[in-house]
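W.,

You were right to be curious about this one. When I first looked at the sequence I had no strong expectations either way, so I just let the prediction run and decided to look at it fresh. Below is the sequence, 534 residues in total, followed by the output.
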Amino acid sequence: MGTRAWALLLVLCGTIFLEGIDVAMLAVAIPSIRSDLDLPTDTAAWVMSAYVLGYAGFTLLGGRAADLLGRRRMFLTWLTVFLAFSGLGGFATEGWTLIVARFVTGVSAAFMTPAALSLITTSYEEGEQRNKALLVFAGTAAGGFSLGLVIGGLLTQLGWRWVFFAPVLLAAALLVAAIRLIPAQPRAEEPGNEKSPGRPRRRTEGFDILGAGTAAAAMLLAAYAVIRLEHGLDGWQLTVGAAVAATTLLVVFVAVERRTPTPLVRLGILRTGSVVRADLGALLFVGAFFGFQFVLTLYLQELRGWSSLQTAIALVVLGCDAILAPTLTPRLVTRFGHAKVILGGFVLAVVAYGLFLPVGMDWSYAAMFPTLIIAGTAFALAYGPLTIAATDGVAESEQGLASGLLHTATQFGSAIGISAVTAVYGLVSSGASAGSDPDATLSAFRAALIVPVAMVTLGALLSSFGLRSRTKPPTAGGKPAAPANTTAATTTAATTSTTAATTTATAVAAAATTAAAIPAGPAAPANPTRQIPS
């Protein structure tokens, strides 16, 4: 690649680094923010939950918007929004300001991330050049998370507001560079002409505003209902009401998409078995991964008394997927096919979480290490190939939509996983002795650990149905496209690292908030969750 191609790649990868470091730094800073602003427990939890709500609520719309409205336009617009509201968080003096800032930051990530990834996959020639670009993308995504945990701890010592101001400085530099480097490509006027990935072809029929509105509202309400599951029967009317309203809006959305001449989401994409199976598998896998980390961080901080920074450093080993995803996983997919590698990842996850079920009161880090390294390896093996299956057979003009569906599944999986383990923990620890008896609290953690084991077991059963599917998608002429899996496998490394960064950091923050708020109480923990010039 030439100098300009490398510069563009670094800018696009910089936004993934930005997202990872932003979430990770906030994870470490949550207890200090709560203490300084004197935030109540529920408000502190919503500082993290607002980001998950915004991300999950708009990821589907964000992925499709990149296809329809232009990837460059979406990228630049939402990077600007990200910059502005990160700065707003740094000036916050009340909890509601932080919640608004984090919600809009989550929304901007939901639009910005699919746009950045699709710009990479459509700006570099398929083959060695694209593979190299995606390897760099994967490394910077994981690096942002890993460095963010440590840098967040250091910046918090100077003042938690720097956790918000540091991303502003980086985002501003990226925005200036992106305006100059991302080409404003000509519009593809003729139907079927997809050689200009930066802008969509002219849509004289109009944009599906009603579909976009109902989809966003349904996803927001659904995400809110899932987040509220952690409260159990407390306020169940609100939880049920949100779920019913979300279901109603989803029915309305489907009716709108069936009748509009220019649907936001072509419902036929859901008839592709591999897409649906992969999205469900990703939901279960990421949900289990997220739920396990939440229980683990509570165990380390609430029972063992580890600090947020100590916990973050301990969890860095889970980032081994950043090395394995772009190196080992593509080779395995090329040799065995993505279906078998997915199943192998699920089986490893069952082993990893199962090993942690008998966790003791005084386990050493060496005793925990096998679970952490196996869990990270399982993530590298399973999630990447799941992305291959989720985009397999999907036209280039709908790659943003397929990406949005996958990211929506992973975000909901994150919320479901943490809500489920929280609910189980709350039920088991609700006894009178749970607050004063460490053994009772440990029993509650062990019971909650059953949830991720059950989720990955179900996912393994589901993924086994994909073993009969072809591992190499056919081309338009019906012949197998041999290099497709290798390229797709490399593409998945970026998505894997990004998702792992978001879920891990949010779990750390949620646990930090809970530990700070209820150091020994029995209550259920609060939830946070074409070619370019050379």
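Here's what jumped out at me. Confidence is low (pLDDT under 50) at residues 188-198, 201-205, 470-498, 515-534. And, maybe more interesting for your project: The longest helix spans residues 3-37.

Coffee later to discuss?

I.
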